[in-house]
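cache lookup: miss for this entity combination. No prior model stored, computing from scratch. Input as submitted by user K.M.:
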Amino acid sequence: MKLVTFSHNDQERIGALDPIGRIVDLQKAFACLQRESKTIPDADEFAVAVLGRDMREFLEHGEKSLEAARESLAHIAASEHVSKKCTVLQPNEIRLLAPVPRPGALISAGKNFSDHVAEMASKKGPAAPVAFLKLPGSVIGPEDDIPYPPEVQNLDYEVEVAIVIGKTCVNVSEAQAFDYVAGYSVFNDISARDIIRTENRTGIHLMGKSFPGFAPMGPYLVTADEIPDPQSLRLKLSVNGELRQESNLTYMIFKIREMIAYWSQMELHPGDVLTTGTPRGVAAGRKPDQSSWWLKPGDLVEAEVEGLGVLRNRVVAES
Amino acid sequence: MKVYLGLLESSPPDHTRIFGELEGTLFDVNLACAAHLAQSPAERASAYALADFYFPKNIQGFLERGECARKMFDQVIAFAQSQGASKLRGPGGEKVVHEITKIRILPPLQQPNKSFVIGFSDRARAESMPRAEIPTAYYKLPQTLIADGAPILWPKFSQELDADGCFALVIGKRGRRIPAEKAWEYIAGVTLMVDLTARDINRREGLTTNNLLGKNFPSSTCLGPAVLIGAARDTIEAMKLELFLDGETKRRFSLSDCVFTVEQIIARWSILGINPGDWLAVGASMALSGDRLHSAVPLKIGSTIRCWSPLIGALSHRVVSA
């Protein structure tokens, strides 16, 4: 399934794409199914209880909500006669939000592709997985703009894959790691290199990675069953149509299963997101001159991952 | 005045309530507010609804209501004191006053957008450290929070655990890019925070300027027990906290021991935007040797950590194996 969070009539809803790209409102579709079976009197409220109020609750509900979503989608596809008003929507009737608009924790890997480690002039790759926290509040969706803050001089992009956790896990083994993944999405780790440089002198980077809008994610959460080999996904990023990054997750230093096993030491929960780190091609790594590659207001950034879609955001000056 | 967040014994986890203190007991601020409003015939019919408006289910919601709720809070306190703990009841005779042991106290702020600790802010320690020019911070995940009395679970991945005692300044007003001279207007209160560090992991992570596993494991952030609301700036500046290990004082700290001023901290971190219920913490480390690489007073299984400040109360935690 391609799961989405979307806004319709100013309400945040959870949904899934049908085979021709329409958006099915999952709560409404499930309520519709219940009404036909005539066993539940308050089908709408029951749907919220089963599916959760938002994507994080949907993921917390685990197999039960996933099964309900699958049933609802199948039911909608099979019944031509049901009223589809507000249940099946055209893409132009809604606005896609980040599939997980409020992750519990957003853990981003650093220095996780050797070609990127080299371009950033680091001596060598790390001995253990390296990651930092981005603020969950910096997440934006595929139809949002990236605000360019006036404090920033060197704004950069980083295409990554977001791994969305579906089950609570503590100290899991690498062999079991994939059992805890709900799905995958495209992620862009927007970074203010100049701010990070000042932060690194005396501490750790936080502000430089976490301005509002510095974590575009989307367009969908593709469930794990549709991605048989996540470790070999191709990913690329272009700015105004010019290709800047192109690689494959196969070149990750710490693989997805190692990342999950390692970070599960701090306990991961449904709706937490790990991101893979980025390959070479960021503006900060350009030789000899970086200046023409920094993002600027008006730029269109397109991050694409095989099977996960395109995440397209425009940079706009903060008003 | 102190506010607590808690659950009645019979409540499911999301039915949290705000409590105030009265004669050594806790009272339900929402119901006391309803009782106060119901005294006036004009407001009797809407007393419960208005009480829900001013005192929603958590402290963050109360702070979001701003000045009007802060004023109502003062009225409710005065009303509760005039009634006394033995007489205080809701408009329909509901039980409002509870023994403190009957309430499950929770971390007062559960889902902050920003829960930051300002790094290298302890003057005693910073003297032997590279001088920090700007207040850098690290983020403590809300999922690591525990309340007063809850055990600290020794993480399996660490051999060396220590604790910092901190004041967490609680934000009461939404703002962004706040000029230094207005910083104090955004501070609604203060609470205590004990910041656990897996020092061996932290040391290793420091080499790559990251700070994650060593600072964010289950039970690595103790917050509470109450938020002191509405204290004047000079009161907050004069407050002291004491950090005890097994009953022995290890550190004392007040805001004047911080390398950075509140104005500098708010001006810097409000660049990202701050919201009611967010908190920014500064404090003193047990790792007193002054050397980032060694903690002078590591904890042990069975150690008891206590962080105390007279106007807020105390956080007490025992270290147990996970």
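stored under new cache key. The two ends of chain A are 38 Å apart (CA to CA).
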